[in-house]
Amino acid sequence: MSAEELARIRADFAVLDQQVNGHPLVYLDSGATSQKPRQVLDVEREYYERHNSAVHRGAHTLAALATEAFEDARATVARFVGARENEIVWTSNATEALNLLAYSFSNASLGRGGEASARFRLTEGDEIVVTEQEHHANLIPWQELAARTGATLRFIPVDDTGALALDDLESIITERAKIVAFTHVSNVLGSINPVDVLVARSRAVGAYVVLDACQSVPHMAIDFAALDVDFAAFSGHKMLAPTGIGVLYGRSELLDAMPPFLTGGSMITTVTMEKADYLPAPQRFEAGTQRVSQAIALAAAADYLSAIGMDRIESHEAALGARLAQGLAAIEGVRLLGPAAGTERVGIASFDIGGIHSHDVGQFLDDRGIAVRVGHHCAQPLHRRLGITSSTRASAYVYSTEAEVDVFLAGVADTITFFGPRS
Ligand code: PLP
């Protein structure tokens, strides 16, 4: 990406053009949430100023316009991830998408689909497989599903670098596995997991594959059909869209057989005092008044990213990730987590400075206008396995620059100087 193009992109993000604590803002916390360009904010404002209405309900013109925009947004987001329109279920965020899915495996009584929804019933003896890298959003819903159903939760461990240890895959993903849920890209390490290997093993034993795509969909070209996963989840706010919108992707034949999670208005065909019949997917999973402006804004964000080109965004961020990793690895006293500098990673780099708490690192950097994430990044088991309780994470996006990475690296070096030599 040329300097001119990057400058043009940055001009779309008003928030980036400000001083924080007397320094130009260096925003390296996009893995937590991204900033929003004016093109996305304008779409949301225009919706409220001109078309605001409840979708799928009213017979009036505004309701029809809102419904059309809402469903067009679904089509745009579906194209963005290689899905069909009825395979995109709107949720509040990825966390809700994963909970919706996990609940569906213990809601067979709501399915009214007989044989079909029985596929979504877990019992004792069944196994759910996750990995030790998971964000809590792709761990706790499965722990709770196991507790509700009597199924057993198993996990693929990581090695000392945090990479998935795949040697014993056949003994971990066995014929008993019903669900294999894993993250595409680690939100802590920035490593990319081998989806094909995990899908192949899951297919061999007939398990459903669930992909946590929170850290991949915003940053690289993704085609869920080509990846051959059954379900996937991601959040709009990490890809230039507002908060309050996320997606559960599911293969259409699975979603049509899957029991609903929330029940109520907008997801039914007929209701009597005794029972209700449900609409097909995706409406079956979208009970209640919907998040219209957020869905339209998510489609605008997908259009914005597509106009730049996901492949170009991916290589821009990979270059920044390499610069982050190499720079951190070169600072004495810094332990870079995840893939070694010089090997494949996205624009995420986390590190530990023994003896300096990540909160102190974050505070020191913030005094210079540098925004990073500190703590366990919702991945306590991974941190425990790596022998630390917390880390500091820098995460870049389409608008991040090499100059910002260099300011951050200088800040980290100065943090160590400030707090004194490490033992
Ligand atoms: N999974 C991963 C890998 C994430 O990075 C995140 C957010 O940090 C989530 C799940 C949860 O996303 P949300 O908080 O938007 O639901």
Strand order in space, largest sheet: 4-10-9-8-7-5-6
Largest sheet: 7 strands, mixed
Spans with pLDDT under 50 lasting ≥5 residues? none
> With helices defined by DSSP (H or I, 4 residues minimum), what is the helix count?
15
Mean of the pLDDT scores? Answer: 95
Specify the structural class: alpha/beta
- The radius of gyration over CA amounts to 22 Å
Termini separation (Å)?
A: 41 Å
Beta fraction of the residues? 15-25%
The CATH topology of the largest domain comes to Aspartate Aminotransferase, domain 2
Query: Ligands in the structure?
Result: pyridoxal-5'-phosphate
CATH arch. level architecture of the largest domain: 3-Layer(aba) Sandwich
- In CATH terms, the superfamily of the largest domain is Type I PLP-dependent aspartate aminotransferase-like (Major domain)
- Helix coverage percent: 25-40%
General shape: globular
Count of individual beta strands: 17
- CATH C-level category of the largest domain: Alpha Beta
Kindly give the count of domains.
Answer: 2
Pfam families: Aminotran_5
EC number: 2.8.1.7
Protein name: Cysteine desulfurase
Keywords: Pyridoxal phosphate, Transferase
